[in-house]
UniProtKB/TrEMBL annotation:
UniProt signal peptide: 1-20
Protein name per the record: Type IX secretion system membrane protein PorP/SprF
Keywords carried by this UniProt record: Signal
Source species of the chain: Pedobacter psychroterrae
Superkingdom of origin organism: Bacteria
């Protein structure tokens, strides 16, 4: 294959990929929906910090690798839940049945945060950095509705050195755009209470052209496309110290097919939890997590591929470290998602 033909082929594949899903995939998004929805900014009683790494489709060279760090917190010095009946004693299980029965909605408040995601797929790399803001409105005694926005930039890069064309230099390489920076905007809604949550969000609202060649061709039509997410879940008790949370998520980025996830988590005294997830026509996953102490929690997920990739891939790994800073109630985990 001629070098110039190889460049055209690569640009064609980039153009095709640009019209499919462009944001990284996460298995444990339900544990950190803040990655997908800015309306969760400042929802907890502590500063919620997450650091994660995902290696997708092990066994395949140059398969996607994703790293992220996120942090969000409420503004102001007041506790979000001031009603004594709605707060556990220090060190008490914050998600016990008694706590759920006495739960009251948090007062109206503001929340902010920051998200940085680094994603590498072969010669392509992407860095998304956003600041987020949310306003949490109190609806009655047991529900809150929050509205959030995320604004930032995306850097999309192409590593020419990772492309091996042999000893001959092709003029097409000189016309390749190796780095481009685009503005980014996302919005979201989140409705939540003691045992119920539902949300919707859109990422990449701003239409941005993605082109990796300075020479106009029929393959220079790539663009960023909106990503839509809708999710809901409900927590109920199997026993006094055992709770189950089923949830679903629908994701769509046209023209890729709509994606449907079904998830289930079972927690034991909020100290240890196990879970599973199924993505239609793609994979199923096993998850486990432990709240080590009032500051640190650790979660892990493994994806079993059910698509045709299972002949060459050994699955995907994902690990997330969580930190609960300023945890004034010294509880193991008061995360209201799971």
């Amino acid at each position: 294959m001629k070098i110039s033909s190889y460049i055209i082929f690569l640009l064609l594949m980039l153009s095709i990929n640009a019209d499919a899903q462009q944001r990284p995939h996460y298995t444990q998004y339900i544990f950190n929906n803040y990655l997908l929805n800015p309306a969760l900014s400042g929802m907890e009683n502590y500063t919620d910090v997450k650091l994660g790494y995902r290696k997708q489709w092990t066994g395949i060279d140059d398969a996607p690798k994703t790293s992220f760090v996120s942090a969000n917190w409420s503004l102001g010095g007041e506790y979000l839940w001031r009603n004594a009946l709605s707060l556990p004693e220090k060190g008490e299980d914050p998600m016990s049945r008694n706590y759920m029965q006495n739960y009251t909605a948090s007062p109206a408040h503001h929340g902010v945060g920051v998200v940085v995601v680094m994603d590498d797929v072969g010669p392509l790399s992407r860095i998304d950095a956003s600041l987020t803001y949310a306003y949490h409105l109190q609806l009655g005694q047991r529900l809150n509705l929050s509205v959030g926005v995320a604004a930032g930039i995306s850097r999309i890069g192409l590593d020419i050195n990772a492309l091996d064309f042999g000893p001959i230099e092709d003029p097409a390489v000189r016309n390749t755009i190796v780095s481009q920076i685009k503005p980014d905007l996302g919005v979201g809604l989140w409705l939540y209470g003691s045992s119920f949550f539902a949300g919707a969000s859109i990422q990449q609202i701003l239409p941005q052209k993605l082109v990796f060649t300075g020479v106009p061709t029929e393959f220079s039509t790539g663009k960023e496309i909106p990503h839509f997410f809708v999710t809901t879940g409900y927590r109920f008790f199997i026993a006094e110290d055992i709770a189950a949370t089923p949830s679903v998520m629908v994701k769509h980025a046209s023209p890729a097919p709509m994606s449907l996830d079904a998830n289930l988590k079972i927690s034991f005294k909020d100290r240890l939890w196990v879970g599973g997830s199924y993505r239609k026509n793609d994979s199923y996953s096993g998850m486990v997590g432990v709240n080590i102490n009032k500051l640190v929690n650790l979660t892990y997920a493994y994806d079993f591929v059910t698509s045709q990739l299972n002949t060459v891939s050994n699955g995907s790994h994902e690990i997330v470290l969580g930190l609960q800073l300023n945890n004034v109630y010294e509880v193991l985990s008061s995360n209201k998602m799971w």
